């Protein structure tokens, strides 16, 4: 990462990444060329390649920036001090809010995976790394709720999230989010019910 004399991230790099993030998310990855990004960021091609030696590296940086925003959002919920079920609800609520936003164009990571299907490609690997973090975080939360293994619940949450992200672009996002949030509530009820069932069995 290129920094200026004060050790700060270059303004040109920030402008390039902000421009790429806006256009990539709105219009797709393959359809947006370097010349378009250079023109809208008001930098030279040499400046772009000094910060991002290839378009692939710029795409990976874009996904990492989106991922950092996701991590900050989840981190806010984790640091709220709320009971774990309410943390899960808060994460689901933030996902629903994103789907209902005016600029929503689907999941940046699912969109990128569709354009870069090769599992060995750096862009695809960046997608998988983010999904691994998200699945692990959600699974760890479910491990604190209920008595049964949490892996299925974690995968269930992520699949509900993926479906909501896809359906949110195709039908009424309010209805999609209601369905998603009800599904998350069903997972929580099942997890919390497993604790009650174990307690009842123990007292029988």
Automatic annotation (TrEMBL):
Q: Kindly provide the name given to this protein in its UniProt entry.
A: TetR/AcrR family transcriptional regulator
InterPro entries given in the database record:
Homeodomain-like_sf, HTH-type_TetR-like_transc_reg, HTH_TetR, Tet_transcr_reg_TetR-rel_C_sf
- UniProt DNA-binding region: 33-52
Q: Does the keyword Iron apply?
A: no
PANTHER family, per this entry?
HTH-TYPE TRANSCRIPTIONAL REGULATOR RUTR, HTH-TYPE TRANSCRIPTIONAL REPRESSOR BDCR
Q: Which UniProt keywords apply?
A: DNA-binding
- The question of whether Transport is a record keyword is answered with no
What Pfam families does the record point to? TetR_N (PF00440)
What PROSITE patterns does UniProt report for this protein, alphabetically? HTH_TETR_2
Q: Which residues form the HTH tetR-type domain?
A: 10-70
């Amino acid at each position: 990462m290129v920094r200026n004399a004060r050790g700060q991230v270059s303004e040109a790099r920030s402008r390039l990444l902000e421009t790429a993030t806006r256009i990539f998310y709105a219009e797709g990855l393959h359809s947006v060329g370097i010349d378009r990004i250079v023109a809208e960021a008001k930098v030279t091609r040499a400046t772009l390649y000094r910060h991002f030696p290839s378009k692939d590296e710029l795409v990976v940086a874009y996904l990492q920036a989106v991922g950092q925003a996701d991590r900050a959002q989840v981190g806010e919920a984790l640091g709220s001090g709320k009971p774990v079920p309410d943390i899960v609800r808060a994460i689901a609520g933030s996902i629903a809010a994103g789907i209902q936003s005016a600029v929503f164009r689907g999941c940046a990571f699912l969109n990128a995976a569709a354009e870069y299907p090769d599992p060995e490609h750096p862009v695809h690997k960046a997608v998988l790394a983010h999904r691994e973090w998200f699945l692990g975080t959600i699974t760890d939360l479910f491990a604190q709720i209920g008595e049964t293994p949490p892996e299925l619940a974690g995968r269930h949450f992520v699949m509900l999230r993926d479906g909501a992200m896809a359906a949110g672009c195709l039908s009424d996002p309010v209805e999609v989010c209601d369905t998603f949030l009800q599904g998350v509530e069903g997972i929580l009820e099942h997890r919390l019910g497993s604790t009650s069932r174990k307690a009842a069995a123990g007292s029988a």
